[in-house]
Design goal:
Layout lengths: L10 E10 L5 H18 L2 E7 L2 E9 H13 L3 E11 L11 E4 L5 H6 L1 H7 L3 H13 L1
Parallel strand pairs: 2-5
Antiparallel strand pairs: 1-3, 1-4, 2-3
The structure holds flavin mononucleotide.
Flavin mononucleotide (FMN) binds next to helix 1, strand 3 and helix 2.
Length: 141
């Protein structure tokens, strides 16, 4: 019998942008990534985190029931603020299956510069979230 109050247990995703609190340094970032990779590995979550000019962009994906508590912890985390959800919902397949949490910063590539290039701006102008995901995926290849 179909139980329509059962929680959705397919794949879900969560994409946001936030502002790192002032003074957040490389050691703090390492600590965030260590905990993130450990917890994501245990929960079957994958994704990536990009840090640039004091901004975070993060994509998280995995079983929806496992994703929810981690997203709630991230939303409560005082190491960043002004969290803007860019996209969330169901997912047909993982985009970052090999990454418990891939990390990139301006040394690898600049999202802000990437947005300014002609290809990215013609394809993704008006679809900010789509542009962010395309950038993150291009880095993870
Ligand atoms: C920018 C940012 C990204 C984070 N990403 C993750 C993540 O991918 N997975 C994770 O488990 N915790 C992540 N965290 C840490 C969580 O906010 C939280 O501290 C951690 O999951 C421990 O949860 P707890 O505070 O409920 O014990 C992130 C924190 C920040 C500030």
């Amino acid at each position: 019998m179909i139980n329509d109050v059962a929680p959705f247990d397919g794949l879900g995703h969560f994409l946001y942008r936030s502002t790192a609190v002032e003074g957040l340094n490389a050691t703090d970032l390492e600590a965030i990534l260590t905990v993130a990779r450990e917890r994501n590995g245990a929960a079957g979550l994958t994704g990536c985190l990009h840090h640039e000019d004091g901004l975070f962009f993060q994509w998280l994906e995995g079983p929806a029931v496992a994703l929810r508590p981690v997203v709630e912890a991230i939303l409560r985390d005082t190491r960043h603020r002004d969290i803007t959800v860019l996209n969330e919902g169901q997912l047909d397949r993982r985009r970052f299956q090999d990454w418990r949490m891939r990390f990139s910063d301006r040394d690898q590539a600049s999202l802000l510069d990437w947005f300014a290039t002609s290809k990215a701006s013609t394809v993704d102008r008006g679809d900010y979230a789509g542009g962010v995901v395309a950038f993150l995926q291009a880095l993870a290849i």
